[in-house]
Every structure is written in structure tokens, then in C-alpha cells.
Design brief:
Elements (H helix, E strand, L loop, with lengths): L3 E2 L3 E7 L2 E2 L7 H21 L1 H8 L17 H14 L1 H20 L20 E5 L5 E5 L1 H8 L5 E7 L20 E3 L7 H6 L8 H9 L8 H4 E2 L17 E6 L2 E5 L4 E4 L23 E5 L10 H7 L3 E7 L11 H7 L5 E4 L4 E4 L2 E6 L15 E6 L2 E5 L8 H11 L5 E5 L5 E2 H5 L9 H6 L1 E2 L4 H11 L3 E5 L8 H4 L8 H15 L3 E4 L4 E4 L1
Parallel strand pairs: 11-12, 12-13, 13-14, 18-19, 19-22, 22-23
Antiparallel strand pairs: 1-8, 2-3, 2-6, 4-5, 6-7, 9-10, 9-24, 10-11, 15-16, 16-17, 17-18, 20-21
Length: 528
């Protein structure tokens, strides 16, 4: 008998029992998040679990640093805190050494040569950093990231938690570690382990019961009830491929995830895909993806765009990943190439700004992407201009059009207008510290924290993009509103939210000018 992995089985990647996201892979950013996020939240919960429970019931505090459990888990969190401080002491020490050295440099480095200060470096940093000035004479630390990985990266803390999906609701990933595994299968396995590819490919290429037992035996697991996890039926969508020679199909899978297809190429942008289960919300799921994904395009290195859960689930069918290059040596901007390599991906293409890559039936060009990163010098961000046949698409994600001249120059450079623009309009985003707080050496002033946000374009900025590029179709996306995104975004808008007001103004603007426009939600499809 043949068994297919059920379409409802989700697979959460965990590190130290926390949901894995990009900044938990590089050793130094991981150490900073353990020290200044995980340990702080765990100590707070142990001290006042009732405060956390009440906070999670308040919609205005969604996405805050509050653990969300159905029952009090003080003992489990005490155990996890002890385990974390023991198993992560090297990374914690590395983070402390970095912040102490950075504080020291800001005090003693006044423009003289930095050579004398190498002897004062902590042992944790020696041979892994360079001390430098920028052209404004500000001292900083340049990380030699590959060597830091060589010394400090370990994957024995990684695991995959398999569970059946019955609801879209999950605890928020930045504040709630996963401690309940009674009904799950927890595979203690590095993310790079290729054995999981065979498991995830079994939604299309079936396994026998002997195959399943052999695979799980290698992880030290047995399945008592095969039918809970597997089915005898292949439920893949029959129309998951494009068969016409001339058609281009675009499908919206939710948030910033779109699939572009011709008969000869499949391109998936920022994979964020729902599982299939009984629900009233319409959606495309994993079953609607083609058997092969030729290119995955990543716009920027935030957890709702570089989602490990989906990348690992799809690794067996992904050919190439295209992504922006980072600002080398920067703590705030770790190498996405190194992160993806640790996830087991090898066929990687770093796309520079204004660089073009030829693909079947067209080309992909990387365009500059401003904003969304709290004014930090983060370069791992790029908008993807995709031409298929004579149709031109731009996926700009959370790009904030701070400088109206940018898209005018882009139009001159690419020498063409854009047919289809997909643009995020989360114009009032989270404060700087929500994501980057653990990386800061010094506290930031309240007013700076809340005017340096993770924000996309507002109405005025979006209009300037449309006018500069001559767009004929405009789609507002990446708003975090799909129900299966709550565990990553924790966003709840209403009609008075600035994001909704600005989006409505843009839709009205397009309607008045006969520009096809829509705010995307749940699922959608176009055939050109």
C-alpha cells in the first residue's frame, strides 16, 4: 500500500525549542536574541505568568513579548531557561563580548589608529573581527562571518516538530517557545539533513509502510497510527501546471507569496503557503504548487519573507534561490547566503541591484528597495522585476518610496513601463526594537524607536511609483491579514487603521484612472 503525507501536516522548524527564523542561524545574532529576547521573556514569564496570560487576551498587545499558553507552564519554562543558559553559554558569551567591545570602542576610539586595541579584544572575538572606522570617523566592528560560523555554529539544537493542522491559530513565534509535543512527532535533526526531503516529497511520491518505518527509525521514532499522518490518496491539484505555450499564470497564495508560471518556468516569490484542512477561508495550499519550482525569489531577510518552514518543506522541489546580497560584516545584516547554506541549499544566486538574469521565457532584474528596515544599513533587500514574454511584473514587497526620484531613474534604466505592480502598504509598521532590539548595544530613545519603523509605502509614495513606472495593474499585498499568518505577524487592522485608509485611497486613485487594482486577500488568480 502507498502512503502520501497528509496536506494538513505542518512542520515547524525549531532551535532551542523556539520557532526558527533567519536571525537565529548566524551565531552572533542568535546569541544576541538568546541573551536579550529569549532569556528576558522566560524570566518575565516565570515571575508573572498571569500577566502574560492577560496580555495575550488584549488585541492591542498582539505581537508583544508575552508568552501565550492555554495553561500555566512555569515549570516547563524554568526547565527551558536552565537548559538554554547551559547549552547556549558559548553564544551568550559571544554576544556579551561583542557588545562590550563595541561599547569600549565608542569610548576609546577617537580617530587614532585602532591597531593597539586588538590586544584588548576578548578571546571570543579574536581572529573573527576587524576594527574599523567609517568615513565619518565612527568606530565599528566588522564581522568575518564565515570564521564566526566555523567556530560557533552548531546544529544539534535544531529539530522539526510535525503536527496535524486543525486551525490557523498558533502562538506568536518571537515570544512563545514550543514546549508541548504530546501529540506531535519531534524529529531532532539538523535543518540541512536531506532525509526530511524524502518525507516532504511524499505528498507527491508515495512511501510504503516499510519506507516510513525505516525513515522514522533513523530519527528514533515509530508511528503507531499511520493514518493520522498519511493518506492513501494523492490529492494534488490537477491544474497545478500551465500547459499552454503562450499563457502566463499568476497565483496569489497569501501575504507576499505569488507564483508566476509559464509552460517552461515556475517562479515562486517569498514562499508563505497554507496547509489544507477543513476551514471556511478559501486558499491555495501546498497541493496547488507545481512539481518543480525553478526559481524562488526572496525580497528581504524578514521572517515573513524568508520563512524556513516553507523553504524546508519545498527544498526537494526547488532548483535555484535568488536573493539580495547583504552588507558584509554587519551584525544587523547577516549573510543570507550563509543562512541558506545552513538550511541545506546549494544552488544559490545573489542578485545585485540592476543586475539581470536570463531565464526561460524571460528575465529577472533586481531593483533597489528602500525603507522597511528602520534606517539601518541593511542591504539584504531587493525588488524583483520579472519579464515573461512581453508581460512585465514588479514585486516590490515592503519597499517604501522615500525618494520619488528612485523610480524615475529606474524607469530610465530599464527603458520600459511596468504592467503589473505588487506593492505592500503596511505604512505604519513596528518600531525598530521589535525586531532589531537584541542587536543594539545601547538603549534607543523612545521617540527614535517609534519614528524609525519597519514601514512600507503610504498612498502618496505608492502613487509616485505608479506614475513613474506607468503601471496598468496594481495589487496591494503583503499586508499580513490572512488567518494563517497570525503566528508571524499578529496584525489586526480595522477600517480606521492607517494601513487600511491608505490602501483604500490608492484603490480609489486607480479606479478613477481606469487602472485595474485590488487589495489581495486569501487567494487570487490571473491568466495573461
Amino acid at each position: 500500500m502507498q502512503y502520501y503525507l497528509k496536506s494538513s501536516i505542518k512542520a515547524e522548524p525549531l532551535i532551542w525549542q523556539w520557532y526558527a527564523w533567519p536571525y537565529l542561524i548566524p551565531p552572533l545574532t542568535a546569541g544576541c536574541n538568546i541573551l536579550k529576547r529569549h532569556i528576558k521573556i522566560m524570566k518575565s514569564y516565570i515571575e508573572s505568568p498571569e500577566i502574560h496570560r492577560k496580555a495575550t487576551e488584549n488585541p492591542n498587545l498582539a505581537g508583544g513579548s508575552f508568552m501565550n499558553y492555554r495553561q500555566c507552564q512555569t515549570d516547563a519554562i524554568k526547565h527551558l531557561l536552565h537548559k538554554t543558559t547551559d547549552e547556549c553559554k558559548e553564544l551568550i558569551s559571544l554576544a556579551k563580548a561583542y557588545h562590550e567591545t563595541n561599547d569600549y570602542l565608542q569610548t576609546v576610539a577617537q580617530g587614532d589608529s585602532l591597531y593597539q586595541h586588538y590586544k584588548s579584544l576578548p578571546d571570543k572575538l579574536k581572529g573573527c573581527v576587524e576594527l574599523v572606522y567609517d568615513l565619518n570617523n565612527n568606530p565599528s566592528i566588522r564581522l568575518i562571518e564565515p570564521l564566526i560560523y566555523d567556530v560557533y555554529y552548531k546544529n544539534d539544537c535544531q529539530s522539526i516538530s510535525l503536527s496535524d493542522t486543525s486551525t490557523d491559530q498558533r502562538p506568536f513565534v518571537l515570544s512563545t517557545p514550543r514546549i508541548e509535543f504530546d501529540s506531535n512527532i519531534k524529529l531532532d535533526v539538523p535543518f540541512s539533513d536531506k532525509r526530511i526531503d524524502r518525507l516532504f516529497a511524499s505528498n507527491r511520491v508515495p512511501l510504503t509502510k516499510a519506507n516510513i518505518n525505516e525513515l522514522l527509525d533513523s530519527y528514533g521514532h515509530k508511528i503507531e497510527n499511520t493514518d493520522k499522518w498519511f493518506t492513501n490518496h494523492n490529492v494534488l491539484a490537477q491544474n497545478r501546471h500551465v500547459n499552454s505555450e503562450n499563457d502566463i499564470r499568476m497565483r496569489y497564495f497569501g501575504h507576499a507569496c505569488l507564483l508566476l508560471q509559464t509552460k517552461n518556468v515556475n517562479i515562486l516569490i517569498d514562499p508563505m503557503i497554507s496547509y489544507r484542512f477543513a476551514t471556511s477561508f478559501e486558499r491555495f495550499t501546498l497541493d496547488d504548487l507545481p512539481d518543480r519550482i525553478d526559481y524562488v525569489l526572496l525580497t528581504h531577510n524578514h521572517q515573513d519573507h524568508v520563512l524556513f518552514e516553507m523553504l524546508l518543506r519545498l527544498r526537494h522541489k526547488i532548483d535555484k534561490i535568488i536573493f539580495p546580497r547583504n552588507n558584509p560584516g554587519s551584525l544587523a545584516d547577516p549573510s543570507l547566503r550563509l543562512i541558506l547554506q545552513k538550511l541545506g541549499f546549494n544552488n544559490l544566486i545573489e542578485l545585485e541591484e540592476m543586475q539581470t538574469l536570463s531565464i526561460p521565457d524571460g528575465e529577472i532584474t533586481g531593483l533597489p528597495f528602500l525603507g522597511e528596515h528602520s534606517d539601518l544599513n541593511i542591504q539584504t533587500k531587493i525588488a524583483h522585476y520579472v519579464r515573461l514574454f512581453d508581460k512585465k511584473f514588479l514585486f516590490a514587497a515592503d519597499s517604501k518610496n522615500i525618494s520619488a526620484s528612485l523610480y524615475e531613474r529606474i524607469k530610465q534604466s530599464i527603458a520600459t513601463s511596468i504592467d503589473v505592480l505588487c506593492l505592500g502598504m503596511e505604512c505604519k509598521g513596528a518600531p525598530l526594537t521589535w525586531l532589531y532590539g537584541p542587536l543594539l548595544s545601547k538603549p534607543i530613545e523612545h521617540r527614535h524607536n517609534y519614528n524609525r519603523t519597519l514601514s512600507g509605502s503610504d498612498f502618496t509614495e505608492a502613487v509616485k511609483i505608479i506614475e513613474s513606472l506607468g503601471c496598468t495593474e496594481v495589487y496591494i499585498y503583503a499586508m499580513g491579514q490572512e488567518p494563517w499568518l497570525n503566528f508571524l505577524m499578529s496584525l489586526e487592522y480595522n477600517e480606521n487603521s492607517p494601513q487600511m485608509i491608505e490602501s483604500a485611497k490608492l484603490l480609489k486613485y486607480c479606479q478613477d484612472r481606469k487602472i485595474q487594482a485590488k487589495k489581495l486577500y486569501l487567494k487570487d488568480e490571473w491568466v495573461y
